[in-house]
Amino acid sequence: MPTVDLRFTPLPEHVRTARLVAVSVARRAGFGEEQLDEIRIAIGEACARAVSATEAAAGRAGLVDMRLSDDEDRLDVTVLQCGQDGSPLPEAVVTATEQDPLSLALMTGAAGASAPATAPGGVRLTWVLERDGAAVQPLG
């Protein structure tokens, strides 16, 4: 299970870099162009929300932590709002009712096999690799 962990300061210009890293990992894992577009959109939204929440909670000293894991036919991405020490910010726990409805709709529409799930201090997104026009069922 290859894993990439990208931490960056909560600046909007770093969202593009996060999207590029996520798409590179997904491409290496075998995802097609249509799914890459979905991944690009959802990661951009998740990271933009994390940048705003982290900056509001911890200022520029905080960090956004994006963790990507590709295992078998899945891509799991977790985007967390963290303090300067890298631990998730407790006040940044994301709930669907507290978020911008347009941003949430974009992430939900692009999240592939599953809707965005809350994680302590952030959000988790999962995509399942599609083969021959059909999604491969997630393991477990």
Q: What does this molecule look like?
A:
By secondary structure, the protein is α+β, with helices and mostly antiparallel strands. Helices cover 37% and strands 27% of the residues. The protein has helices spanning 13-28, 33-58, 101-110, and strands spanning 3-8, 63-71, 74-82, 117-119, 122-128, 130-131, 134-135. The chain has a 5-stranded antiparallel sheet with strand order 1-2-3-5-4, covered by helices on one side. It has a two-stranded antiparallel sheet with strand order 6-7. Strand 6 (130-131) and strand 7 form a beta hairpin. The chain starts with a strand and ends in a 5-residue tail after the last strand. The model is unreliable at 92-97 and 133-140 (pLDDT under 50).
- The biggest beta sheet, please? 5 strands, antiparallel
Categorize the overall geometry. Answer: globular
- What's the Cα radius of gyration? 14 Å
Oligomer state equals single chain
Strand order across the largest sheet:
1-2-3-5-4
What letter string, H or E per element, gives the SSE order? Answer: EHHEEHEEEE
- How many E-type strands? 7
Helix content: 25-40%
Mean pLDDT: 78
Distance between the termini: 15 Å
Runs in which pLDDT lies below 50 for 5 or more consecutive residues are: 92-97, 133-140
Provide the β-strand percentage band: 25-35%
Number of helices: 3
Structural class: alpha+beta
